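Q: Got a minute? One more chain.
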Amino acid sequence: MLLSDFDYHLPPSLIAAEPASPRTAARMLDMRGPTFIDRIVADLPDCLNPGDLLVVNNTRVLPARLIGKRGEATINVTLHRRIDGAVWRGFAKPARKLKLGDQVVFSPDLAAEIDFIGADGERGFAFNHSGEALDKALEATGVMPLPPYIPRPDGVRDDDADHYQTMFAAHNGAVAAPTAGLHFTPELMADLQDRGVAVADVTLHVGAGTFLPVKVEDLSEHKMHLEWGEISAETAAAINRTKAEGGKVVAVGTTSLRILESCFRDHGDTRAYQAETDLFILPGFKFGVVDVLMTNFHLPKSTLLMLISAFTGKAHVDAAYAHAIAENYRFFSYGDACLMERRDD
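A: Always. Here it is, folded:
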């Protein structure tokens, strides 16, 4: 399978620079049938049935973009994976200036020593704080790591700290938002509850690797970055109960899907689970848990476009994206949503 198989042309004018207001006013392309239906996110309760289970990602985005100094040199850092309480992996520019043992100072209160050198500008940062103290220092020093396609020529705005965080955010650790969750509001959740749709949560700490381009044409050679995730015993029980009673498991976002399917890949069922996952989903993958997926529109040649092509069929995705472009849907993190069913044929 080739990278070029997952390319498409997107007019730059369709890349969303701002979220919809209110969040539930975002458009939602219903792809579940052979004919596409143009909806809005507020219609989601009408698309689901009593007894279905909505699974959301409760990760919280940290202000993981930092500017520091190594001597007189300015270093830009985007953290992407927590190793332990005090150590993160991150991408640095210019990385060539950072050697093992170097110290980078980000503020009078926050500094880190380089303890690892990886490929593609990756470095290990051993901070002078740990755990909650480090999280507080990052909140005070860092900025929200908006993806590069959201233009902020004057820097990230204060309102992005709210816009780029889901209402489910509870556990610090992500450096990119699980963007399908950005469409939800307390009012929509109340409507879903009234419909008889249950809700459960998982955690997948989204890494900055989600923004890295795939660099190999032969996709069998691509390696995903690790991301940490967890399924609680309560969520596993809710999923298994839903399946047994004939309901559908509806994943909000590819991140929720990936941790659920990682558990199924490893164990053949859904159970309490903690792991770092590098699951790379391509057409031909056999899904075991998720029946319906709500997600945003993804970048050309991205692993997420490959994932949804595996989930609901590449030809169906190609046709849906052509429809969305023709109808001026808004794409990527602050953009519109689509709703799709798993196709096993």
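A: Residues 254-267 form the longest helix (14 residues).
Q: Perfect, thanks.
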